[in-house]
């Protein structure tokens, strides 16, 4: 049942809002800005004790529902991870309040009078954040990696 819920969300812009994730993470190296290589090898460990190497750390731009580009900071680049994860703990550390209810999840900037900056959807017992990757898509196009994507041409 859980696998079918996860498979039902296939949009490449979907990030899973995860209270159990210690850090934001993705395998999409091309999305990163201002990356730093790690001085010592580090790993992400999953619930089944499998470890995945972290290759670098950086920030990833996201176009939020309020029209602004926000950056997920300290995102781990993990080559072999399949889903993109947003860490609730990191969001709170960055001054956001994240609340959940049957209608979805809500991320509010507490440094800006609780302004809503993102709303995630509820998919079964999972919560997802569907964000636009305009800056990333533009960079891929400039570097010749997105020329086949008709959506980019129209933007």
Blueprint of the fold:
Layout: H1 2-7, E1 14-18, E2 25-26, E3 33-45, E4 51-63, E5 69-77, E6 85-87, H2 88-93, E7 96-101, E8 104-109, E9 115-123, E10 126-130, H3 134-142, H4 150-154
Q: Tell me the Rg in angstroms.
A: 16 Å
Give me the CATH architecture, please.
Beta Barrel
| Name of the CATH class | Mainly Beta
CATH topology: Cathepsin D, subunit A, domain 1
Average residue-wise pLDDT: 79
| Number of H/I helices | 4
Order of helices and strands: HEEEEEEHEEEEHH
Main sheet properties? 6 strands, mixed
**CA distance, first residue to last residue:** 37 Å
Number of extended strands: 10
Helix proportion: 10-25%
The shape, in one word, is: globular
Structural class: alpha+beta
- Spatial strand sequence of the major β-sheet: 6-1-10-9-8-7
Question: How much of the polypeptide forms β-strand, as a percent range?
Answer: over 45%
């Amino acid at each position: 049942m859980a696998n079918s819920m996860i498979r039902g969300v296939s949009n490449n812009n979907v990030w899973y809002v995860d209270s159990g994730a210690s850090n934001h993470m993705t395998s999409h190296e091309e999305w990163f800005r201002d990356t730093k290589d790690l001085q010592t090898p580090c790993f992400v460990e999953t619930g089944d004790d499998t470890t995945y190497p972290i290759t670098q750390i950086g920030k990833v731009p996201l176009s939020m529902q309020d029209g602004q580009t926000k950056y997920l900071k300290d995102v781990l680049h993990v080559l072999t991870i399949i889903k993109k994860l947003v860490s609730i703990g990191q969001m709170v550390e960055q001054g956001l309040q994240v609340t959940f209810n049957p209608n979805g999840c809500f991320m509010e900037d507490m440094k800006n009078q609780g302004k809503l900056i993102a709303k995630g959807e509820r998919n079964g017992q999972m919560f997802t954040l569907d964000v636009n990757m305009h800056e990333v898509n533009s960079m891929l196009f400039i570097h010749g990696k997105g020329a086949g994507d008709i959506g980019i041409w129209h933007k």
